[in-house]
Amino acid sequence: MGAADYQVDEKGHLEKNNYLNCEKGLKSWLFTIDHKRIALLYLGAMILFFLVGGLAAVLIRLHLWSSDSKLLSPDMYNVLFTLHGVLMIFLFIVPGIPAVLGNFLLPLMIGAKDVAFPRLNLFSFWIYLLGALIGFIGLLDPVWLVSKIKGSAIGTWMPLDTGWTFYTPYSTSTGAGSGWGTIIMTFAAFVLGFSSILTGLNFIVTIHRLRAPGLTWFKLPVFVWSLYATSIIQVLATPVVGITLLLLIAEKVLGVGIFDPEKGGDPILYQHFFWFYSHPVVYIMVLPAFGIIGEIIPIFSRKPIFGYSAVVFSSVGIAAVSFIVWAHHMYTAGMSPFSQAFFSATTFGVAIPTAIKVFNWVSTMYKGAISFEAPMLYAMAFVFLFMIAGTTGIFLATLGLDIFYHDTYFVVAHFHYTIQGGAVIGLIAGLHLWFPKITGKMYNKKLAIFAFWLIFIGFNVTFLPQFILGVQGMPRRYAFYIPEFEPMHRLSTIGMFFNAIGYTLALLNLALSWVFSKEKAPANPYKALGLEWQAPSPPPHDNFINTPIVTVGRYDYGKPLEDLGLKGGVSG
Amino acid sequence: MAELGHVIHPRVFWKVFAVLVFLTIITVILSPRVSGHIVDFGKVNILIALSIATIKASLVLMYFMHLKFEGPWILVYFILPVSLLILMIAGVFIDNPLRIDPSPEVNLS
Amino acid sequence: MAESVYSKVGGRGAPPVYHHIDPINAYHAAKFGMWLFLATEILLFSVLFTAFAIYNWAYFESFQHAATKLDWKLGGLNTLILLFSSCTAAIAVYKAQINDNQGVVKNFTVSFICGLAFLVIKYFEYSAKYRHGYFPGTELWNSAEFSTQYKNYFGLYYVMTGLHALHVLIGMGVLLWVIFLARRERFSEKYYTPVELAALYWHLVDLIWIFLFPLLYLID
C-alpha cells in the first residue's frame, strides 16, 4: 500500500481507507491485530462495565439516603459494594487508560506501526473478556441459580460479599458468597491479571524496541514514560495477586490453613500478599493519567512542559517507591509496631515524586497562553482534585491519625478522589483530547464543557461530605448508620446524581458526536507538536503515510518556527 | 550475516552440567537429614543449602540461559523480580517475628 | 480481507515477515518479552517461597518433622533429571544456531522425556503420600492427630510442587510444539526464536526446582 492509496485532504483528514473502514465486518474487529481497533474494543467493554459498576454505586447511595433504609437488605448491600469495587477496579480502571489510550497512542507517539506483539495484544483482550465472562458467571451465583431453577432455592442470590479485597478468613469460610461465588470471582480476577501482565509486557518491549530513528529515551512523550512506569508495575506486581488468589482458592478447596487462623494460618499474611499488589495497582490506575495531564497542559498553555526530566524521574520513582509502602493498608490489622512505623515512613516518601509532578504542571501553566477547551478543563480539575487526594493521603499515611481514619468514610473519600478525581478524569480528558485523532470527527464543545461542570460539581458534592463523615466516625461498608450522619449522606447522594448525569452526558456526547457529527477533524486540531498529530485523522492501518522523522521536540512550544524548521507553520 | 544471538558450544554446557551435578551431591551430603545429623550446622543449615542453590541457579542463568552474554536490560528485568522476592520476605519478617501479641496462645511466634 | 500480517517468505528457515518489525529486531524483542514473562513467573513462586519461609520460622519443629516424610532420594533424582534436561535444552538452541534441525528434535525430545520422567516420579511420590494419609481428604488428614501445622506444611508442599509440576507439563507442551516445527526443518541460524523461547521457559522450570528441592526435602 503506497502513499497514493491514501487520499488525505489538505487538513490531514483521511476519509476513506483509514483504520476504521479499511476492513469491515465483525470478524475483522474481533480478530484484529491493529492496536487502534483493539483499543476501541477495550473501550466499548470498559464503558459497559463502568456503567454497571456505576449502577451499583447509584443503588448504594440511594440506600444510604436514610439512616435506617429498607431499600436493600444488609446482605444485598454487601454484595453491591463488592460488585462496585470488583467491576470498577478489575474491569474498568486497571485496564483503564493503558488498554484504551495506551494501546491507541503508544505506537503513534513513538512512530511505530504497531506494538511489539500485535497478536499477544489481541490475546490480552480475549483474556480480558474471558475474565469478565467468568466474573459474570460468578455474578449469577450459579449454585443458587441452579437450585432456584430446580424449584427449591438454597438461600438467596449471594455471588460475593467479601468486599473487593477478599479478606480472609471470611473469604475462605463457607459464609462468603455461596462459597462457589467467591471461588469463581477470585478466579475471574486471576484471569484478568494475565490480561494486565501481557499488556504491560507488550508495552515495555514496544518502548524499548520500536522507537522511530532519532527518538531517544529523553525525547519520549511524558505519556509514554508514564505508560512505561505503569507497565513495569503491571508486570512485576500482578503475578503476586494472581498467586495469592489461587492460594485463597486452594485454601477453600484443599482445606489447608495458610490464611485461616483456626487452621493455624495467618490472616495478616493474606493482607501482606494482597496489598503487595494492590498498592502498586493504584499507581497503575493513576500514573497514565499523570501522563495525559502532562500532555494536555503544554498544548493548552502553548508552553513547554516545565521540568521534563523531573517529570520522567518522578514517574519511574513513583513506580519504584510504590512497592515499599503496601502495609499502610494494614496499620490496624495487627502487625508489629516496627512494621507500622516503617511503612508510615515510606508512605510519606511516595508523596514527594507526586508533589514534584504537581509543581511541574502548575509551573507549565504559569505565563502560558491558556485556552479553556474541554481537555484543559479536565486537566485543571485533575490537578485540583488530585491535590485534595494527595494531601488526604498524608493524613492516612500518618500512623496516629490512620488509627482513627482506617475503614471510615475518610478512606472512601480519599480513594475516590484519587481514582475518580484522578484516573477517571484523566481518562475522560484523554478521550476528549485525542477524540479527533481516534474518530476523525469533532465532539460538541459546548456540551462537553457543560458535562464537565456537572461532573466536577457533582463529584465534589458527593465526596467532600464523606471526608467529614469519616472524621466524625462513619465506618465504611456499613448498611446502616446513626441519624446524626444523615445530612452529610443525603448531600453525598444528591451530588452523586449530578456526577452520574455528568458522566452519562460526557460519554453520550462523545458517542453521538462520533456517529452523527459531520465535522471532519483535521490531523492537528490543537496545533500541537508531537508525532501522533502528524498522522492523519483517523490514521490508516499502518499509522503513518510516510515514515515520521523526529525533528521538533514534543514540547518546543514558544520557540520561533524557523528554529524548529517549521516555516510553514504547524500542520493542521 | 552476523549471528542473531550469542552462540555457546555444547562442551561448555556439559562442563556446567558436571558442576551442577557435583553441587547437587554436595548439597545432599551437607544436609543434616541425609547425613543422619553428622553434618549439622544448626541454624546455618538453611543458609548453606540456599547458597549452594543460588550458585546452581546462577550457573543455569548465566550459561544455559545465556544471561552472561545478554544486554543490560535483560539483566535489569531479572534482578527486579528477585529484589521484590527479597523485599516480600523482608516485609513479612519485620512483621510476624516482631509482633507484640496480647494473647500468646493464638499467635504464631 | 487485508493481507496476512505474518507470511513466510523465502525457503524454510527464513524468519516470518512482520509488517511492523524487521526480523532481527523481532528476535530481540521476543527474547526480551520472554525474559519479562519469566520475571512474572519468578514473582508467582516468590509468594509461595515467602509463605513457606514465614511458616517454616513459625512452625519450625513441625515443619522439620513433616519434611522427614518426603523421600529425598526421589527429590534428588528429580533434580538430576531436570538439570540434565536443562542441559539438552541449551544444546538444542546451539543446534538451531548451526542449522541442525534434527539436533533440535533430538535434544528437545530428551528434555521432553526427562519432563515425563519427572512427572512420573512425582506421581509415585504423591500416591505414596496418599496411601500414608498425608493428603487432604484422607482419614489421617482429617483425624485429630494430624496437627494444623502439619496440614500447613503439606498444604504448602502440594501447592508448590503441584504448581511446579503444572509448569513442567506446560513446558513439555511448548517443547513438543517446537519439536514438531523442527521436524519440518523450520529453523535456521537466521530464525530459531521459538527454540530459544521454549528453552528459556524450560530453564525456568529447572531453576524453580533447584530451590524447591533443598527447601522442601533437605532442610532440617
Mean pLDDT of chain A equals 92
Would you identify the CATH H-level superfamily of chain C? Cytochrome c oxidase, subunit III, four-helix bundle
Tally of helical segments of chain C: 7
Taken in chain order, the helices and strands of chain A follow as: HHHHHHHHHHHHHHHHH
Structural class of chain C: mainly alpha
Shape of chain C: elongated
CATH superfamily of chain A: Cytochrome c oxidase-like, subunit I domain
Assign the CATH topology of chain A: Cytochrome C Oxidase, Chain A
The total number of structural domains of chain C is: 1
Cα-based radius of gyration of chain A, to the nearest Å: 24 Å
Largest sheet of chain C: 2 strands, antiparallel
By secondary-structure content and strand pairing, the structural class of chain A works out as: mainly alpha
Instruction: Please report which band the strand proportion of chain C falls in: under 5%, 5-15%, 15-25%, 25-35%, 35-45% or over 45%.
Output: under 5%
Could you give the topology of this structure?
The complex is a heterotrimer of chains A (572), B (109) and C (220).
Chain A: H1 26-30, H2 35-63, H3 74-93, H4 96-110, H5 118-139, H6 142-150, H7 180-209, H8 222-254, H9 267-301, H10 308-321, H11 337-365, H12 374-397, H13 399-405, H14 409-433, H15 435-439, H16 445-472, H17 486-516
Helix pairs in contact in A: 2-3, 2-4, 2-5, 2-17, 4-7, 4-8, 5-7, 7-8, 8-9, 8-10, 9-10, 9-11, 9-12, 9-14, 10-11, 11-12, 12-14, 12-16, 14-16, 16-17
Chain B: H1 10-29, H2 45-64, H3 72-93
Helix pairs in contact in B: 1-2
Chain C: E1 7-8, E2 16-17, H1 23-58, H2 60-67, H3 72-97, H4 101-132, H5 139-142, H6 148-183, H7 193-218
Antiparallel strand pairs in C: 1-2
